[in-house]
Amino acid sequence: MVRVDEKVTVAVDKNGSPIGFAWRDCNYLVSDTPVRWFARREWWVEAARVQRGIGSGILEVEMWRLMAADNVAKRKHQYELVHFTLENAWRLVRVYD
Amino acid sequence: MGAFTHLHVASAFSGHYGVTRPELLVEAAAAQGATALAITDRDGLYGAVKHIGACLKVGIDPIVGVDLAVHNTEGSPMGRCIVLAHGHDGGLGWSALCAIVSAAHRKGKKNTSIGIEELARLAIRDGVALVTVLLGVESDFAASVLSESRTEAMAKLLCWRKALWATASLGVEIASHITEPGTQGCITQANRMLQLAESMGVPTVLTNAVRYLEPDDALTADVLDSARHLEPLGMFQPQPNAQAWLKPTVMMQALAVEITQDSGQAQALIKRTEQLADRCRIDPPNDCGWAKPKTPEKSTLGIEGNPFEVLWQRANQAIDWRYPRASESQLTTVRHRLSQELITINRLGFATYFLTVADVAQMIRDMKIRIAARGSGAGSLTNYLLGISGVDPIEHDLLFERFLSVERTSLPDIDIDVESARRHDIYRAIFKRYGSSRVTLLSMQSTYRGRGAMRDSGLALGLDDEQIDDIAKNMWRFSARSFRNAIGSKPELSALAEAIEEDRRLNLMVDITERLDRLPRHISMHPCGVILGDSSLLGLTPVEPSGLGLPMSQFDKDDMDPMGMLKLDVLGVRMQSAMAYAVRERERVFGERIELDDIAKDDIETFRAIRTTNTLGIFQIESPGQRELTGKHQPTEFNDLTIQISLFRPGPMKGNMIAPYLDGRHGFATPEYIHPDLEPILRETYGVVIFHEHVLRILHVMTGCSLARADEFRRNLEHPRLAPEVERFFRAKAVERGYNQDVIDKVWDILAGFGSFGFCKAHGAAFALPTYQSAWLKTHYPTEFIAGLLTHDPGMYPRRLLLTEARRLGVKVLPIDVNHSTDEYLVEASHTTSNTNSPGVRMALTEVQGISDGEVASIVAEQPFASVADFYLRAKPSRRTLERLALVGALDGLAGTDSHTRGDIIVRVRELNTIVKRPNVDPNQPMLDFDIIERIPTGHAQLSADERVAHELAILKMDVTEHVLDKYREMLDEMGVVRSDELVSMRSKTEVLVAGVRVATQTPPMRSGKRVVFITLDDGSGCSDSTFFDDAQQRCSHVLFNTRLMIIAGKTRRTGVRGVSLMAENAWDIKELWNAWLKQKGERLAAIA
User: Fold this and answer.
1) What is the CATH number of the domain that holds B1001?
2) Which of B42, B148, B284, B907 has the fewest CB atoms nearer than 10 Å to its CB?
């Protein structure tokens, strides 16, 4: 397993589930039903405000573990993406061998 | 498919865990289409009654349970479970749940947990389950499922099933917060729990283990976790995400599918959930005795036959006692009023209730403890005759209907005041008299308010204590909910306003503080509430140990009425203790018995003394505002006190009732009665409507409605929704009765404006009694009264101010003396041989900072002492206490101050303190070194007055020898500072400087909504009151709340015959001025030399 922390562009289906992503000039296609869970962020370290009604995005992130293959070598790997719902930003955090 | 029912929901009453108040959860569930909702608070039913009430209001079924820790027979933890009461079973489920909760609390707050065997015994009766126990993710079963040990998990579940064998007594709760696979709360864990439970035949249900209403609330939950762990965020394992919210039906259905991976299984799971929900729907009246009044059984009260007949007899028999000299026509009035009251009481079925309260009141009197009624109960003649109240409602023109009427069916509140020092004795006596199965103490949920919310927010963010203290110090009179607003507008917070721009954490702290505001914080014993019921009481409310050791209900005062429980407020009032003490001291020292409750209420001397405005120490009228009002009002009779006490309340102040009343009273304005019919009602207040009783009578006279009905109208007037209906009725009936339109319009304007501003006269009269009694004692027995005040400390002012007042009254304050002082302030008939009849007050040993109860007890036990060494040997004080006693002169009497100075004694004491081991006293062995030769050195300097006061302030926190300000006298004189007692003779708008020690700071609510700060200073000659408006507050914000010794510049403002206050312009710290002055003085001296 390799830890990374890089911005990726993600395409999702109508349920918000990733179907493909672009990373380091390469496109990856999701090949299986991804596993989703929810993890958290340490808002007390990063947030500027936490007023009532700011929403759970400041506390919570969506995590996706998925099998995907790149469009060049076509090699399948397991990847983990984090989706910051507040900012609607995606990052790749883990790549499994 | 119907709406989903949540069976696992922690409310905000799960202290430091749940986030949302039950009412909000219920409303949201109803809005989601749910037909029922559970509340399962941690460790108790703290929010249950509010939940049931909210459910009844929106028309859904309440379900009640608890989230409890369980241990096995060896005492090892088995994790937590949910216990849900079954409903519609005549209360069996509810009372089993109460018993289970009470049992879990038996071992105290830290070890709240129930043994599995006891749980099973209470859960199952005659083979039938009364409750369902649900094992969720916090159970030991779920933990072993997660560790992937199938056999271990099965063994755990088997263990539960063996104990909880009856049908429906055990279930497994399938809940997932969709956490990372492999961690607690993940989908896989939920799926495995489901499969395992099914394979073993244990039914499963779906929940979302709810902690808050909406995802946004998860942030608040983080902070509550921090407060529970007592660790800053980041220092403990936080909740995994923000999924623990009240998810709507579609999301719960989707969750079921995600867990089961099978729509059939998902549907079955949800169906079983609804089946369990149905079994647990509570029928409030039949399951928990909702709204049905419960009083002790007749036999417990020692009565036979019909309680109403007993009540009728007792009340009538007491007429001779209460009205010994009444004329026949007066007696007719009394009898007529009494029958009317009794008819109402009988119709409501409250006879037993009155007999119960009377029984308690009699018990308290038999214990020789002072007792007085408070509140609207003083309006009842029945209460007066039964000895519950000491105020004659006929003499003071008080209405029963304000207290009780057939229009309302809730149990009335009868509150009684007793001596605070004896309150716990009374509680124990009540438990003894009625038996612990019928009595519990009432609890109280304290909630997060300003400073508390700020402190826990600061803690969560890891701010340091000093920073938190600094901010807390400047938080004055605003709701934490509007903290950010306050920061922008309050001058004393301007430093904080700048700081939050720079410091991200401070900025977050402000947001969190606002989030925490009003959330329940912890449960504690209610300061005065006792619940009295019949022998079924412990099946209706769970109890836990209180700080007193007596059991305490988990319900609070708002829960009493819905539960039909009789709550008796036995409030400890320090003034009652102080007065009882004064009376006892008079009898002890002079053999004179004072019957305080029998004194005439028209003593000229007493009212003259009140009118001087030196009301310090007098009940209810000693505050700066009341002193000012006393100056303007100049009361001359008892009813004036009732009026004055009632006027000085937020309502009448906001309603602007004071000025018109005073104008009428002093003849500055002609009273306007609007109509001759109203004159008899409003004559006492010069046409101003002040009392609830006034409104009742006006409605009664002008519409012909009953007084009982009128009180309902009065209550409705406060509701914008209901007021129009009152108006329609009032106008129609008044026209019918021939009042002209102009009168009707004018009266209605007054009634509509009255709103919530008025005050209950009975309450005012009940308070006026101890006010008068304390004023009477202060006037005629100042020494005894001051001794009582100093011993029981009833007032709002620091004790050193009482010494100032004692000096002003000419009461001798005798310094601490180890041969004469005890743990109380004793009255001494004559303290010197030369002055035979001059009583004084001897200061108590307890004033010495750091002296222990043991040291005080041993000094008192060993008194008298012959010498310093004798004291050292027999009283065995610690070194620190011995030195402190010497420094404040408590040993002067042992050394003979004719031949020795305080300095000599201190040297001797320090010598003794160097002895490593104190020798034991042996009566057979003459102790040459100590006993015979008291070696006190001579020739050491006497302490200066300045030094004495410094020691007194350090050790006693009081200036005994002279006033603390005397030290600065030279500078103050040079500056032309005036003394407070000179203010009264000054012209209005004179510019003056006053100085003194801050004794009170108040920020009362103002009509304009703007904040005004009142500061009272004591300078030894009396007190001065200064008012700071906005611009003055800006000018001296740094000294406004924190400086003790101050000089204030301002203009005098006459407010009445003897009323003067200062309109402050600026203020300074005396100590700062003093240092500058000393420096200047030094320079001047140097220049001369």
Assistant:
1) 2.40.50.140
2) B148
In this structure, the answer to whether residues B951 and B1041 fall within a common structural domain is no
**Complex ipTM more than 0.85, yes or no:** yes
Same structural domain, B1043 and B1071: yes
- Proportion of chain B above pLDDT 90, given as a percent: 60
Residues B181, B58: one domain? yes
DSSP B800-860: HHHHHHHHHHT-EEEPP-TTT--SS-EEES-SSSS-TT--EEEPPGGGSTT--HHHHHHHH
> CA-based angle B465:B466:B472, to the nearest 5?
85
Structural domains counted in chain B:
6
Residue B932 confidence (pLDDT): 44
Closest residue to A52, CB basis, from B240, B243, B515: B515
Does residue B851 lie within any of the structural domains? yes
Report how far residue B48's alpha carbon sits from residue B558's, in angstroms, rounded to the nearest whole number.
12
Residue B778 lies in a domain: no
Return the pLDDT at B148. Answer: 77
Instruction: Report how far residue B1041's alpha carbon sits from residue B1013's, in angstroms, rounded to the nearest whole number.
Output: 9
* Whether B385 contacts B345, CB under 8 Å: no
Q: Are residues B665 and B637 in the same domain?
A: yes
Report d(CA B352, CA B366) in Å as an integer. Answer: 21
pLDDT in tens, B652-700: 777 778 889 999 999 898 998 999 999 999 999 999 999 999 999 999 9
Which residues, in sequence order, are CB contacts of B304 under 8 Å at separation 6+?
B298, B310
- C-alpha B61/C-alpha B708 separation (Å) is 34
**Beta pairing class for B131-139 and B170-174:** parallel
Inter-helix orientation angle B574-590/B782-792, to 10°: 130
Q: What is the pLDDT of residue B833?
A: 45
pLDDT tens-place string over residues B603-656? 999 999 999 988 999 999 998 889 889 988 999 999 999 999 998 887 777 777
Residues whose CB falls within 8 Å of the CB of residue B352, separated by 6 or more in sequence, listed in order = B295, B296, B298, B301, B307
Q: Are B913 and B883 in contact (CB under 8 A)?
A: yes
Domain of residue B484 covers 449-518
Mutation choice for B interface testing from A35, A38, A83 by most B CBs within 10 A:
A38
Last residue of a domain, one of B286, B317, B352: B286
Regarding whether B612 and B737 lie in a shared domain, the answer is yes
Minimum-distance CB partner of B216 among A37, A40, A55: A55
Helix, strand, coil content of chain B in percent (nearest 5): 50, 15, 35
Report CA-CA distances (Å) from B219 to B184, B489, B667, B774.
20, 27, 61, 52
Shared domain check, B158 and B50: yes
**pTM score above 0.90:** no
Contact B256, B269 (CB under 8 A): yes
- By the 10 Å C-beta count (0-12 exposed, 13-18 middle, 19+ buried), B608 is classed as exposed
In a domain, B42, yes or no: yes
Q: Are both B184 and B101 inside the same structural domain?
A: yes
The residues with which B1069 forms a beta bridge, in sequence order, are B1046
For an interface test with A, which of B24, B187, B239, B241 has the most A Cβ atoms less than 10 Å from its Cβ?
A: B241
Query: In Å, how far from its chain's centre is CA B653?
Result: 23
Instruction: Tell me: do B173 and B302 sit in the same domain.
Output: no
CB contact under 8 A, B216 and A49: no
d(CA B391, CA B379): 8
The answer to whether residue B416 scores a pLDDT higher than 50 is yes
Is residue B1065 domain-resident? yes
- Confidence band of A35 (pLDDT split at 50, 70, 90): very high
Which helix (H) or strand (E) covers residue B1066, if one does?
strand B1059-1069
- Is B511 in contact with A58 (CB distance < 8 Å)? no
Domain boundaries, chain A: 2-96
B-chain CB neighbours of A56 within 8 Å are: 215-216, 218-219, 242
Element (H, E) at B205: strand B204-206
